[in-house]
Amino acid sequence: MSKYNWSVLLGASFLMATSAIGPGFLTQTAVFTAQLGASFACIILLSILIDAAAQLNIWRIITVANQPAQQVANQVLPGLGYAIAILVFLGGMAFNIGNVAGAGLGLNVLLGLDVAHGSIISAGIAIAIFIYREAGKAMDWLAKLLGMLMIALTLYIAYRSRPAMHEVLVQSIFPKTFSFKALLTIVGGTVGGYITFAGAHRLLDAGIGGDRHLRAVNRGALSAIGIASLMRILLFIATLGVIHAGAVLDPTNPPAAVFKLASGEVGHKLFGLVMWSAAITSVVGSAYTSVSFIRSFHPRITQWNRLIIIAFIVVCCAVYLAVGQPVKTLIVAGAFNGLILPVSLAVMLIAAYRPAIVGGYKQPLWLSVFGLATVVLMAWMGYQTIAQLLA
User: Fold this and answer.
1) Nearest to 259 by CA among 232, 240, 238
2) DSSP calls for 136-160
3) Is the pTM of this model over 0.90?
């Protein structure tokens, strides 16, 4: 691949990862660490395996087919792509309302701005990226820069919190407690809904399609999971250290409490920067990918793609300003997107064995088995979670 294409591939990896690392991601990690303690390490380890199975299958099949996911699904079963597109679009909007709120909260902590004003300013910055003629390059650059910044700052807080790592290593294999709801939610928050398609659709827009790029696509998919998982692990370690020191997290903003308790007011300001970075990159990634799912509905949507993305961001900001976005809704959004994953992944696995869609591509058996196991596990966990909620 050319130097430019490698840059696009890395940008796609960071776009997927930073789409995942939003306010919901930060909140979910802090909340479940507080609930489960060191046992959450086992859930993180399992989630990484599930994320890798979903990401590898979906990225490979979309790039080999050289078509966005909704078009692939429509070829599997006419009309199915439209149904999945609507689900993903709604899931992306649910997440993006929280992303806009998180961006406002980040500027509130960092600069003392009113949360509503901070949300409007952040939405304006996201819109400016799509107004810019080279929006794709700007999006790649922003995702890489802020992704690395978030990881560096969270690494510092994890170092300051100093948790008992021996207990983490033991309970990652032999947990004292387990929660299927937590596993479903964090998988949904990492590769559920629109997130797992963000990087693959970015590659298609950059002209990277067909089976000749499969090795690079594999690296990109695994790099994306690696970046998101590293951030999850660092935040988990930081939260666990704070909890082991006897602190109780503020339920209105758990991740902010982690940074403040670990490093005082400096940590609180760092959290503001991390929260804003996580939120603004997720606003961009969510808007771009959610709209990419409805682009094939009508030629005018492709023609007015940027304007529709901008309208998507404006609507999400307006909804947040009208009704607000509590912590609980961020958790529910992750679970909802987790329920979408088994459907979308199952469709991609069927497509992998349709020559009319993938041509002469031969799907590795181990990857199909890995993917099918993920579909069954996620569907079962979704059923269990819904049953618990109804009970």
Assistant:
1) 238
2) HHHHHHHHHHHHHHHHHHHHHHHHH
3) no
